[in-house]
Amino acid sequence: MATLSHVNQEISLVATLPSTPRGARAARALTVAQLMQRKLPFEDAAQVVAELAANAVTHGRVRGRDFRLALRLAPGPTLRVEVSDTRREFTPPTIPGAPDTEAESGRGLVLVSALAARWGTDHGPAPLKTVWAEIDVAGPISPDRGFHDPVDQYSVEHEA
């Protein structure tokens, strides 16, 4: 399992995950676990990772190739999230537009833009594409929020 390590006064995690919905969920879970361990707020980072990983799995998937999650916590502290895939031709728009109100998808980058201080796309050696976002995680987790992932916190009520 990947863990955050101290390198050059920067904490980092790099994990290669399968380009499947399960891999996207694992990316989110790794992020939450690492930030919770350091008693840092994780809600915004979890949502950003979920959106970027879902995009990598949905739009960046190439059969037989995985995607990479990289987290870097720099002084400030600022968390830099990077999600890399091998579908360079599917680059997200630099300014995400508002989706059609009837659309069932298309809001992910709008959320990333709202939660991150800045975000963008880098291209590495072909065919590599990395979508990154930087999030301020300066404050500790509020005691009233607890240390549990909010996704697991609320039960879903079923109609009888």
Structural topology:
Elements: E1 5-7, E2 10-17, H1 21-37, H2 43-59, E3 67-74, E4 78-85, H3 108-115, E5 118-123, E6 129-136, H4 150-153
Antiparallel strand pairs: 1-2, 2-3, 3-4, 4-6, 5-6
At a glance:
The chain contains four helices and six strands. The protein is of the alpha+beta class and about 160 residues long. The termini are far apart.
- Low-pLDDT runs: 5-9, 143-147
The description of the largest β-sheet is:
6 strands, antiparallel
Q: What is the general shape?
A: globular
Strand order of the largest sheet: 1-2-3-4-6-5
Q: Could you tell me the radius of gyration in angstroms?
A: 16 Å
- Portion in beta strands: 25-35%
The average pLDDT value, as a whole number, equals 78
The separation of the N and C termini measures 41 Å
Structural class: alpha+beta
Assign a percent range to the helix content: 25-40%
Q: Count every helix, treating DSSP H or I runs of 4 or more residues as helices.
A: 4
Oligomer: single chain
DSSP summary, beta strand count: 6
In sequence order, what are the helices and strands, one letter per element? EEHHEEHEEH
Describe this structure in words.
The protein has a six-stranded antiparallel β-sheet with strand order 1-2-3-4-6-5, covered by helices on one side. It contains four helices and six strands. Residues 5-9 and 143-147 have low confidence and may be disordered. With 160 residues, the protein is an alpha+beta fold.
